[in-house]
């Protein structure tokens, strides 16, 4: 990918779904640091450790799924809804604003014009509201993990969880 920069066909290069561990393998081999690491990132999977690591390396985190996947759990959370109501905003607007205020780049998807407009209307969240959202994933049943991606043999596209740097809990569940 680094060679593409010399062609002038691309302005920057990035990676996707890299953990701290996989970045630690990649970065010593790079002459150009990736501009971004595109990952699943939202209030139920906030990726705090990865964010801190990427910040320290000058890598911007891009949230390809700022609302979660499928049925976003936090869209029904009373505390999250209260923050949205306090700003006369949608839960989606709060999620996008939270992501931006953290210094990440959310890329929400919608085919609905009204939702598209709402998704680009940011609100300023208070520090205590940011903390409320930061803590959503700690509530029982709210933490999203990468468990959906596991294979019965304990691999992900032939990589072991250890190679990927995905932390495992007791019982073999991916916790990041």
TrEMBL record:
Location of the NADP-dependent oxidoreductase domain: 1-136
SUPFAM superfamilies membership: NAD(P)-linked oxidoreductase
Single GO term (MF): oxidoreductase activity
PANTHER family given in the database record: ALDO/KETO REDUCTASE (PTHR11732)
Name of the protein described by the UniProt record: NADP-dependent oxidoreductase domain-containing protein
Organism: Hermanssonia centrifuga
The organism's taxonomic lineage, starting at the top: Eukaryota, Fungi, Dikarya, Basidiomycota, Agaricomycotina
